[in-house]
């Protein structure tokens, strides 16, 4: 299947590693002009080395004001992928307020904020757009030691629905994707233990996690 994003401008958050990086590169390969946002400059350097057409933006999305400043000059964006996310795995009884705030700040509040900034532009231009929020199966399914992570993704799913409701009239589509385990740095954090992984994998019809053997054509 041939997919073309020629003429579109896309912004991907958390584009330094894992799913976000792969998404940024895939969009660029499909012809989109991509803005890659993440908080580690070294990741952006290597990303631009891999694909010179990508525009890098380095910011910690948990910082509301810094995000506002960093995104003010990115120009018109047609496609937004809210992918940046983090996980801290703790038994429920050991979760601290800091950990709760850290996860909600990135996994939920930053999605709201980045979407507000870019959807205002989409609305003003009248050209519509598309927003994809990267949620998780953990929004629907209780996973041990993932209390706050699951709660952030549950909140993200409901945020997605209300965004779709309110932004639809401006021809802005809002959807979520809810992957199961993907073997990125985050995936390895939770699922490197073969015994634990087996329980999860036994419920996946293909019998493997996502992220295996990805062949990437040049950007
Ligand atoms: P990852 O490999 O850990 O990559 C996450 C990326 O987001 C990194 O580049 C990270 O930058 C960036 N990021 C995190 N916090 C940020 C912040 N405050 N400001 C800017 N950038 C930030 O994770 P992943 O597995 O690709 O996950 C991507 C998304 O998919 C997340 O929303 C995750 O919840 C979701 N998801 C993952 C899985 C899985 O099994 N991997 C399954 C379902 C859903 P630094 O490295 O510099 O912090």
Domain module count = 1
CATH class: Alpha Beta
Count of runs of 4 or more consecutive helical residues: 7
Write the CATH fold name: Rossmann fold
Give the DSSP E fraction (strand runs of 2 or more residues). Answer: 5-15%
* Quaternary state of the chains: single chain
Helix content: 40-55%
Largest sheet entry: 6 strands, parallel
Uncertain stretches: none
The helix/strand order is EHEHEHEHEHEHH
**Radius of gyration (Å):** 17 Å
Looking across the biggest beta sheet, what order are the strands in? 3-2-1-4-5-6
Structural class, from secondary structure content? alpha/beta
Which molecules are bound in this entry?
A: NADP nicotinamide-adenine-dinucleotide phosphate
* Mean pLDDT, all residues: 96
Number of strands: 6
The global form is: globular
CATH superfamily: NAD(P)-binding Rossmann-like Domain
């Amino acid at each position: 299947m041939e997919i073309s994003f020629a003429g579109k401008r896309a912004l991907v958050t958390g584009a330094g590693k894992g799913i976000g990086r792969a998404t940024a590169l895939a969009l660029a390969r499909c012809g989109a002009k991509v803005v890659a946002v993440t908080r580690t400059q070294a990741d952006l350097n290597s990303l631009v080395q891999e694909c010179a057409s990508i525009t890098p933006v380095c910011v910690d999305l948990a910082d509301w004001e810094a995000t506002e400043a960093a995104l003010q000059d990115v120009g018109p964006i047609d496609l937004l992928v809210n992918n940046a996310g983090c996980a801290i795995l703790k038994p429920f009884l050991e979760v601290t307020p800091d950990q709760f705030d850290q996860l909600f700040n990135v996994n939920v509040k930053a999605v709201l904020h980045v979407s507000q900034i870019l959807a205002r532009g989409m609305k003003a231009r009248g050209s519509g757009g598309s927003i994809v929020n990267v949620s998780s199966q953990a929004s629907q399914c209780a996973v041990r030691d993932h209390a706050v992570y699951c709660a952030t993704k549950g909140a993200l799913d409901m945020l997605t629905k209300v965004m779709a409701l309110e932004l639809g009239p401006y021809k802005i589509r809002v959807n979520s994707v809810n992957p199961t385990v993907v073997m990125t740095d985050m995936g390895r954090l939770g699922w490197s233990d073969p015994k634990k992984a087996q329980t999860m994998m036994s419920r996946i019809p293909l019998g493997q996690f996502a992220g295996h053997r990805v062949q990437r054509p040049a950007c």
